[in-house]
């Protein structure tokens, strides 16, 4: 009987970290993909695996170029017959890297991203359990056509919703507003939620994305920081606003100036949960006013996801209308069945 193949690659992160040489402080990435697989012998009971080490660096140091190389590796693995792929990386940037990969992932086979909150030599290290769960999700037929998934702590998250909401501990990841898509139960992926997936975007011609800034508003904000970001040659700005998309009057006036320079401004909520509104409030600096000034509402996408999407669109030359339409698709279509 021919067994299914799951391809596994590692980029590094806490899951690969071990104690530093004598005299040094703290753990550092040292383990490769084969080391991680050998630590979980139960994987071989389920599927055959291939292992590749793409990098051995902390999650905070990952670049877009690293992720695009990982994307190419994953596509080659699927073309070679893998039913799913698992990408292991540092958790600091999973919520951004998984979404970036999801924007470009055009295969039915799942791409599952995982990592660990505790280093390999720590008591109660969560890395082996997360790798096993990720492999089980990648091999499960029910995971197909759901795009890039994040598996941590036996929870299955949509890449467009997941956030690292706590600095430490195995329960650091969750999906605000809607919760996880499913769970790993008795070695199987069990899904109770769905996610819509618009058509994949074109991969940018270079290994870097257009520069986009995130500017979070604050009590007493006079728009100076937003003005500085616009003057610093960022090609786009994500304005992380109060509540459902509100800023002070001075900030609203600055938005008009920035948009007039043909710099797209995407409006998100800094609350961490819930969407931006479009037409409930009518005061100066409200979501209605900002939209009228040309700001693009992000809907359910948070600031970090919005920065990735805006940068991806700008990197292939999209204009304001195309960017606005893409945010409409990805920021509001949140409850449809997965596409085939």
TrEMBL record:
Residues 6-189 form the L-asparaginase N-terminal domain. Pfam families: Asparaginase (PF00710), Asparaginase_C (PF17763). Residues 212-325 form the Asparaginase/glutaminase C-terminal domain. Keywords: Hydrolase. The keyword Cell wall biogenesis/degradation does not apply. Belongs to the asparaginase 1 family. This is Asparaginase. It comes from Nocardioides endophyticus. The lineage of its organism: Bacteria, Bacillati, Actinomycetota, Actinomycetes, Propionibacteriales.
């Amino acid at each position: 009987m021919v067994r299914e193949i799951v391809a596994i690659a590692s980029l590094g992160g806490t899951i690969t970290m071990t104690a530093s040489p004598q005299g040094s402080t703290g753990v550092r990435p040292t383990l490769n993909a084969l080391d991680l697989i050998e630590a979980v012998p139960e994987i071989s009971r389920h599927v055959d695996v291939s292992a590749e080490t793409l990098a051995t660096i902390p999650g905070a140091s990952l670049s877009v170029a690293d992720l695009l190389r990982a994307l190419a590796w994953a596509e080659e693995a699927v073309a070679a017959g893998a039913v799913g792929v698992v990408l292991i990386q540092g958790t600091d940037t999973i919520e951004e890297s998984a979404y970036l990969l999801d924007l470009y992932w055009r295969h039915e086979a799942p791409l599952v991203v995982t990592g660990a909150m505790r280093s390999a030599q720590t008591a109660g290290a969560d890395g082996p359990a997360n790798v096993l769960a990720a492999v089980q999700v990648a091999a499960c037929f029910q995971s197909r056509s759901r795009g890039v998934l994040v598996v941590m702590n036996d929870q299955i998250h949509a890449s467009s919703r997941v956030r690292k909401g706590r600095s430490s501990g195995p329960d650091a990841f969750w999906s605000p507003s809607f919760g996880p898509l499913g769970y790993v139960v008795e070695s199987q992926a069990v899904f109770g939620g769905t996610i819509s997936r618009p058509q994949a975007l074109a991969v940018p011609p270079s290994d870097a994305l257009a520069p986009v800034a995130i500017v979070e508003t604050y009590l007493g904000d006079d728009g100076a920081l937003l003005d500085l970001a616009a003057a610093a040659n960022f090609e786009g700005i994500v304005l992380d606003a109060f509540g459902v998309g509100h800023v002070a009057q001075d900030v609203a006036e600055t938005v008009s100036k920035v948009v007039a320079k043909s710099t797209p401004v995407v409006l998100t909520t800094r609350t961490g949960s819930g969407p931006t509104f479009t037409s409930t409030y009518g005061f100066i600096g409200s979501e209605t006013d900002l939209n009228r000034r040309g700001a693009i509402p992000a809907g359910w996408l948070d600031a970090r996801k919005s920065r990735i999407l805006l940068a991806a669109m700008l990197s292939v030359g999209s204009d304001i209308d195309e960017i606005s339409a893409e945010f409409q698709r990805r920021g509001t279509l949140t409850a449809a069945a997965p596409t085939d």
